[in-house]
Amino acid sequence: MNIILLGPPGAGKGTQSAGLVERHSMRQLSTGDMLRAAVKGGTPVGLKAKAVMDRGELVSDEIVSELIDANLAAMDKGEGAIFDGYPRTAAQAEDLDRILAKHGRSLDHVIELGVDVDALVERITGRFSCAKCGALYHDTANPPSKEGVCDVCGSTEFKRRPDDNEETVRTRMDEYRAKTAPILPGYEARGIVTRVDGMAGIEEVATAIDAILA
Ligand code: AMP
Predict the structure, then answer these.
(1) Pocket residue to mutate for ligand 1, from 16, 28, 36, 59, most atoms within 8 A of Cβ
(2) Ligand 1 probe mutation, 6, 39, 58, most atoms within 8 A of CB
(3) Which residues, in sequence order, are bridge partners of residue 194?
(4) Of 79, 80, 93, 206, which residue is the least packed, with the fewest Cβ within 10 Å?
């Protein structure tokens, strides 16, 4: 099974991917996570990408498609892939078809997380994660059950993404509207798109996604 989770920043792609990884032992392929790891590691890709990411703009198609290709090459054929934050442009959508074919895979579903754009800024600026295990939280919608302690690993260290500030979020929304949303009709024409209400609670969205994959 190969699926794309599509939606603007803050729609819940990362949260739902993490749930799918647990429930269906699929692999999450998040180009955002890969790029953040490259920035942290100071690799040539990271050095190129950092300023672009800080502005909320899109990194080049070539860089992200190469990351996806390399990650798919390292996976077992039978292991399902969740594309989270990729593809984000028409060129990336074409690259993905080519890369999937090269690895003997094809696209099963595109799940569009529909959201109320006005609510997204609040969603994004409130989110943080455990600095140790990466578990995702939100100040109001999904805080740890004991304040200041990670539910998953017990760590007391948390972090926020540098690009989760209001100004950058607005640029990321504009990028989504201008470059990513236009790739949906192509997938719709192939009959593989299902829209899920991304404003519903985390569990409810997960149930809706599971129903699509069943
Ligand atoms: P994300 O974690 O998916 O919100 O991505 C964070 C940032 O990484 C984005 O704002 C872009 O700068 C960059 N990025 C992630 N995925 C892509 C992609 N598929 N194409 C271009 N840039 C990307």
Answers:
(1) 59
(2) 58
(3) 111
(4) 79
Question: Over its length of 214 residues, how does the chain's per-residue pLDDT go in tens digits?
Answer: 999 999 999 899 999 999 999 999 899 999 999 999 999 999 999 999 999 999 999 999 999 999 999 999 999 989 999 999 999 999 999 999 999 999 999 999 999 999 887 788 888 999 999 999 999 999 998 999 999 999 999 999 999 999 999 889 889 999 999 999 999 999 999 999 999 999 999 999 999 999 999 9
In 3D space, the residue among 90, 77, 55, 105 whose CA is nearest the CA of residue 183 turns out to be: 90
Q: Where are the alpha helices (DSSP H) in 56-165?
A: 61-73, 90-102, 117-125
85: left (phi over 0), alpha (psi -120 to 50) or beta: left
> Which residue of the set 132, 161, 179, 195 is catalytic?
161
The alpha carbon of 60 and the centre of ligand 1 are apart by a number of angstroms equal to 10
How far away, in angstroms, is 165 Cα from ligand 1 center?
15
Q: Is 10 annotated as a binding residue?
A: yes
* 114: nearest Cα among 171, 176, 25, 162: 176
Q: Cβ atoms within 10 A of the Cβ of 15, count?
A: 23
Task: Record the tokens describing residue 25, joined without a space.
Answer: 């032992």
pTM of the model: 0.90
